Amino acid sequence: MAENNKVPESAQNRMVGFIRYCGGELLECGQNGALMRIQIQPHHLNFYGKVHGGLISTIMDATAGLTASFAGPEQRPAVTRSADIHYFLPVSGDEIFAKGHVIRAGKTMCLVYVDVLNADDTICATGAFEYFYVDHH
Question: What is the DSSP string of 89-134?
């Protein structure tokens, strides 16, 4: 991957596990939020030929987690406490994007909103995610 100065190395290093397996690519990450993309492959589709809801929730959760972790001046590890996802439109096309932004970050918790957009910039799903900050020491 080409070097991207909108993604700190510490954020790129968190792109592990399932989201990387799904093809997630981190495009931006910082105190203003995160932006992630997945280029759609045939195995990402459901029976109806649309992007599987599980993939949509995966990209949303990964984007929200990075958004929460970089919400303040220090980077804090965070784990999902709750997720409330609303699917508006079936998603098709070559790629999907997830944009996360912080609603409120406190000492122990963070609330993040995430929108999933198709290649035409249409919002297809949205969600509210609560994250709990964990002490990693």
Answer: S---SSEEEEEEEEEEE-SSEEEEEEEEEETT--EEEEEEEEEEE-
What DSSP string describes 5-35? TTS-HHHHTT--THHHHTTEEEEEEETTEEE
Strands of the sheet with 123-133, listed across from one edge: 24-30, 33-39, 95-105, 109-118, 123-133, 78-87
Distance CA 132, CA 112 (A): 11
* Domains, the chain: 9-133 (3.10.129.10)
75: exposed, middle or buried (Cβ count in 10 Å: 0-12, 13-18, 19+): middle
pLDDT digits (tens, 9 = 90+) for 53-106: 999 999 999 999 999 999 977 788 999 999 999 999 999 889 999 999 999 999
Q: Which two structure tokens, joined as six digits, stand for 70?
A: 């970089």
Q: Is the pLDDT of residue 125 over 60?
A: yes
Residue with tokens 């990450």: 29
Strand partners, 101: 113
